[in-house]
């Protein structure tokens, strides 16, 4: 292996490690959800209408249990047909299919790390693709 290829691989690994550290640091400090995250979890985990929406009760404080029950997957059926029907017009369903599968694996519990882990996988994939494109371009 020549020095140039070795230097490229070392740079890739260093940037990969920096991205991972920054991602984990920012994820650990994340303490609130934004509307798109709530929409994503609602879309993939609310397969029946009988779940109580804790955000409808403005005068009651929300407990962690309320949020976990609402955002977590209580049904272990993937319901891909429902995701396809409800989201196909305005979203690409692949992200939601994968988020639903991850939510089922963590059934009856919820963590912001569920979506962040999926985003991390997509970020690393994109970084790798861009890296290989620009290395081959030079």
Description:
- It is a single chain.
- By secondary structure, the chain is mainly alpha-helical.
- It contains 6 helices and no strands.
- Helix 1 runs antiparallel to helix 6 and helix 2 crosses helix 5.
- The model has no long low-confidence stretch (mean pLDDT 82).
Shape: elongated
Largest sheet: none
Mean pLDDT: 82
- Residues in helices, as a percent range: 55-70%
Could you tell me how far the N terminus lies from the C terminus, measured between alpha carbons in angstroms? 18 Å
Q: How much beta, percentage-wise?
A: under 5%
One letter per element, helices H and strands E, the order comes to HHHHHH
**Low-confidence region ranges:** none
Radius of gyration: 19 Å
Secondary structure tally: strands: 0
Indicate the structural class: mainly alpha
What's the helix count?
A: 6
Write the layout of secondary structure elements.
Blueprint: H1 3-28, H2 35-45, H3 64-71, H4 80-87, H5 93-105, H6 112-137
Helix pairs in contact: 1-6, 2-5
For this entry, give a set of tags:
138 residues; mainly alpha; 6 helices
Question: What is the structure about, briefly put?
Answer:
The protein is an all-alpha fold. 67% of the residues lie in helices and 0% in strands.
């Amino acid at each position: 292996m020549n020095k140039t290829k070795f230097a490229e691989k070392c740079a890739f690994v260093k940037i990969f490690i920096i991205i991972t550290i920054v991602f984990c640091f920012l994820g650990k400090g994340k303490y609130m959800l934004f509307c798109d995250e709530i929409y994503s979890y609602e879309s993939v985990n609310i397969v029946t209408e009988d779940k109580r929406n804790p955000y409808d009760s403005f005068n009651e404080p929300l407990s962690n249990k309320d949020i976990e029950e609402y955002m977590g997957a209580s049904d272990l059926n993937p319901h891909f047909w429902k995701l396809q029907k409800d989201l196909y017009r305005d979203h690409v369903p692949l992200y939601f299919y994968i988020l639903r599968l991850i939510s089922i694996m963590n059934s009856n519990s919820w963590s912001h790390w569920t979506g962040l882990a999926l985003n991390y996988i997509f970020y690393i994939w994109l970084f790798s693709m861009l890296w290989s494109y620009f290395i081959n371009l030079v």
